[in-house]
């Protein structure tokens, strides 16, 4: 029997409330039906693979010379100047209200959720973007360039180095992060509604889990939390206590954020396709895409796992001391 299972058994014997059993259970704080996390994971991987096919198609068109090299689109178009040049800003525009809206559906640990979202997106995401585009990529291009001598000084020849596609990297990392951050919110509304209309279930009060519930019942009814969580501390979703007017404002805001996030994702796919066809070689585009996928994996499968593992370890130690 694992340490987590023994802890759950001791808590039942002493009539203590049951806590989350794994680190994955507290990533999104709320309990979710079986398969929801699998759907979210599958959805993200499918998006990464589909976008990879788009990048391969665009790079293949360029590699096979289907389009003449002298055909270059105008880079000063509205879409490029307003969206492409400010891609990370638009990422934050989508994800900041997303974090706030999802926080309203939480029963506990709202501050913890906001802090983790801020660290994932603003701190870690921005740092990785700056590290690759401002430090690594320029140095790779410089190191692989041909040089010529001007006034006794060797300078790199423009266009001769390996120019990793910074636009592909940034747009793809933005797309993957938006997908990862939005999908729990969408799944929570459309997959967890138990066949009722979207949003309606957010206003329902749930029966608190007791020590007599079985494992599956506990999974379906427990508001999962970090540390101890007594029944007297349980509270309904904040949305169950607000007026109808505020509720409709929330639904409208929620719908707008989802729609705008999907629009940004589709726009990024189109722009990456154009970049792969007209502005970078096959290998330069593919490398940018692979770096973006690797950074998504690092943020959500490595960094977040380490953070959750540390939180669960601290929570288990506190419960051992309390018991």
From TrEMBL:
GO molecular function: coenzyme A diphosphatase activity
InterPro entries noted in UniProt: FIT
Transmembrane segments: 45-67, 87-104, 111-132, 169-191, 247-271, 277-299
Recorded topology in the membrane: Multi-pass membrane protein
Gene Ontology CC terms, in alphabetical order: endoplasmic reticulum membrane
Classification via Pfam families: FIT (PF10261)
Signal peptide coordinates: none
Region listing for Disordered, in residue ranges: 210-234
Keywords: Endoplasmic reticulum, Hydrolase, Lipid metabolism, Membrane, Transmembrane, Transmembrane helix
GO biological process, one term: lipid droplet organization
Domain of life: Eukaryota
Protein localization: Endoplasmic reticulum membrane
Protein name, as recorded: Uncharacterized protein
Species name: Holothuria leucospilota (Black long sea cucumber)
